[in-house]
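Title: Prediction job returns without error message
Component: structure pipeline
Severity: low
Priority: P3
Assignee: unassigned

Description:
Job completed but the reporter wants confirmation the result is attached to the right record. Sequence as submitted:
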Amino acid sequence: MIDRLEPLVIRHTLRVPTPTGPVGEGATVARQFDAVLLSVGFKLSPELLERLSGLSGETVVRIAGRTLRTVRQMVGDHVQHNAYFINFPADVPDTVDFWMACVADALYDEETSSATLKQLRSGVVNLLDLPTYGRYQHTYAEMLAAQDELIAAAGDRITVLHPGGDLDGELTALYLQLAGSVTPLSEEHLHDLRALAERCADGPQPEAIPVRENRAVVNQARLKVGSGLLLDTVTDVLRLACALSDGDVALAEPTRFRSLSRPVRRALLAGLDSVVAASPAKLADVAAHREEWKRLGERLHPHEYPRWPHAADVFAVARGELKARSFDGRVEELLAENDVLGAVKLLKSAPGKLYRALDRLLRTALTQEERDAVVAAAEEVAPEVSGRVVLSVREHLHNRARETGELRVFVNRRGRAWVTDDERTVVGPEERARLIAVLDDETRRRLPSPERLLIDPDVLDVALPLSGKATAAGLGVLPRGSVSQVEGELLRFFVYWKESEERTDFDLSALMLNADYSTNTWLSYTSLTDVEGEHSGDITEAPDGASEFINLRLGAVRGTFVVPQVNIFAGEGFEEVEESFFGFMLREGEQQGRPFEPRTVRMKSELRGTGRVALPLVFLRGENGRWRAKWLHLYLKGSPSANRVEENRLTVANLLRGIVEREQLTVWHLVELMTGEATEVTLWDGGTVPDDGPVTYIGLRRPDGLPEGSRIVTLENLRDLIPA
């Protein structure tokens, strides 16, 4: 149990639960543990080192083993990162010279010489048929022996691990935090919540579970332990059924419902019956997922349970035997008749829907009276709208100041992105300004007013995590739209993948674009070297796992944008492979080291998307020549096979234009709103922290020595900044 749950605490909080074990002289082992951690870019805080030193050596060894496994996986050091060219980034050949060498090797090989000659005569040679192309020609150990040890530098990443409370308390606190989150969780965090809920479902519970996907996962655990279900809509029951079948609780993807036991069927039908009996109008929600309800009805057999007639009504609506006008349908009818005032009056009963419709209502309104009514309604219901929606609409309106004809970017819940021309008419500047004032006042009202704020300046450009779906799982990953500084002279990307069943070929590429988004150059398996840097070589199969790297000298980069991408050339998708992740490292000058050095990793994110081309982030050169990263977490549909940077560069450039020119609400926005006249604000310079009383600290990482009683907000719990 400890081996399964303790890593959750470390990954989410960077705290090591209070170790239990006999008192002893563990100082020597603890220092050795700290030294090994340093080699992968982690270290023990002074408090944690002191606590471990008071335990027996055997206890510290056990803790060290579990913790090292966790942090190595966090940074991507749990696998072997081999490179095709053994001395990479040195001795990378010219692309054509390399291909000709592979052809020559095939001609000297008795098994392939005749087939290669035949291809040469036809004028087309398939690189995949050449025995020395796309497959490692040396072992991982041979590659390590050929490479120098890492030369430590002051800029190497150090992530500090802090002492936590006892494991039970840490798990309960993490469960309450995830279950009670006011923003949707990422897939990884939702999976973690499921594991925690299985343990914590019959213990302390959050005051509210506002996110429906979270509620479905918690209900699944509560059903298992016999606790009452948390249901207030019919869709809550549908989500729970999806959870029981390991389906998509967000209802974005169809679920193949499993056969359910009688007790489970009775629980679901009883829950449905109670929801509809309390509010028959909620039958209107069935139409949104009519087909899913039909399939679920085949598993629940509601006709066998006449004692729950209201549950049977749900399936009658799904089959079209019973009419239930949907709320959205009524709104559409009013807008089709240009009855804006009627639509506003109806939408006031559903404040969240009203806010999501504000843009359309203002564009539909023909008179000033109608526009005034829209703004007045928004102001009236503002206290009833979730903080996440308030901030989302605020961000939307901020970007609606642009003229028509700009690009409009769409991103779905799975990170799939596409772009089109924005042909909407403008929102009136007066109404836009009035609404923004309403939204800011409402957000300010909900935010705390701390007496003392300690701010890490690096966190101010981090986009507000309005949805965990906009952030990939991993280490050092920021929400989509965030901007962070890039400090270092050498930038190195890496991708790792391991196929599950069929031969799978991922290709790492880097596209360099000019300021007008035109193509400058690129690095890929078809262009191994350029002024900017080197590619480590094409690997075309990964039964035991494979890695590719791109090394860039930022000072030599021509152009304004660097867009790393992972293209699926053949085989399994990002969600089908056994494992896949992307990341980047930063090094100083000619800092030596192996192709993959965990201490230099600044970001490692999981690749889990439905497209065939992954765009994790983009690097932008500023007017001062300094580089910044803007986080994307996007996927393009791509082609079923043979995706290449040469083929998708125009699509990428067009999408990038829409993304780069859009402005996100950042932490800075909330800091401004929560800072009152009496608030003492201090910018943390990375040194010592004030010790004269508790503070509210907001930053990328937790500093040592924060006064007891301080509120700490870092990347691990940044979602807590979003007001309910």
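Comment from assignee: result matches the submitted record. The CA atoms of residues 508 and 684 lie 37 Å apart.
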